[in-house]
Structures are given as structure tokens and as C-alpha cells.
Amino acid sequence: MSRQYFADVLVEPIGVSHPTITATTITPLVPVAYCPIPAFDIRAGKIYELTVGGTATINAGTLTLTALLNAVSLGASAAQTCVQSSATAPFLFRGYLVCRGPVGLAGATTPVVFNGKLEGGGVIATGGSQNSIQIQTAPTNIDVTIAQTLNLSVTCSVAPSIIPFWHVWRSLN
């Protein structure tokens, strides 16, 4: 018989929009306080899911996604060239943090990977104007004996207006 897993929302979604992102420097998509991982929660095969939705006005330029756990960089996407989006076009990001195990003792000994995709609306009735950015990191060893926070950040070469309206941070198993 297989194990019975229950998906669990790790932090209740908040009832207001997150801060608007207008900077051209690396900026968290969702404040890191809303994506915690308790100490010793990560185990081999453990999967966490981050889903974020909102609106964005992306100007022609590049957009990069970067994933970090605490201050440890898991990796970044390529600097994706974006087309001009319509004002306040909807976007949806979905990403997964997966522990590839085995879980080690104290110290950076447990490998994790992050994979995700941001889809953003383009100019209405204009083919090929939708923005899509993907991130896939290489296995990175982390310390599971300390609490972690996921920081998914965006960097735009031209000032954007990205408004995350909501997010869901949950454990799938």
C-alpha cells in the first residue's frame, strides 16, 4: 500500500496585494516571509509548490527569474527578452522546489532543485506578444537542519510594474 500524503498550505494567503515591483534590481516576487520552510521539514522526495498570480506591465527588455533559499542561490533563468505587454496584463507563475535527497546531517548536504514558469499576457489581439520565462536550477546542496525561506526574485532591464495579487505556498507531500 502506498503512503497517504496530504497537500498543505504552509502559509495562509494574505487578503491584500503584495508590493508593486518597479525596480530594475533583483526584487522578491513575493516577500520571503510568506514562503517559509521549517527546520527538518525537507526530506527526500519532498515537493513544495509556489503559485503567484497578478498583473504586470512589462516593457521591451529582459526579465530574469532567480531562486534562492535563504541566501543560497539555487540558480537563475536566462535573461529572457520580453516584448511589450499590454498595461496590467495578467500573469501566472508556478514553480516547484524538490528535494532530491538523501537528507544529510547538519551542513549543506541535501540536494534540491527548483523548476518554474512565468506566463504573462501580451498585447491584446497581437500574436506572439505573450511573455514566457522558465527557470530550471541544477541540484544545490542545502542545510535542512535550519529553517529556510524561498525567495523567487525578478530582475527587469527596463522598469516594470508587476503587482502580485495573491500567492499560494504549499507542500504537496
Give a quick rundown of the structure.
The protein has 173 residues and is mainly β.
Attribute tags:
mainly beta, elongated, 50% strand, 173 residues, seven-stranded antiparallel beta sheet, six-stranded antiparallel beta sheet
What can you tell me about this protein's structure?
The chain is mainly β and 173 residues long. 0% of the residues lie in helices and 50% in strands. The strands form two sheets. Strands 1, 4, 8, 9, 10, 11 and 13 form a seven-stranded antiparallel β-sheet that branches. Strands 2, 3, 5, 6, 7 and 12 form a six-stranded antiparallel β-sheet that branches. It starts with 7 loop residues before the first strand and ends with a strand. The relative contact order is 0.35. The mean pLDDT is 87.
Summing up helix and strand content along with how strands pair, one would put the structural category as: mainly beta
- Please mark out the parts with pLDDT under 50 across 5 or more consecutive residues, or reply none: none
Q: How is the biggest beta sheet arranged? A: 7 strands, antiparallel
- Helical element count? 0
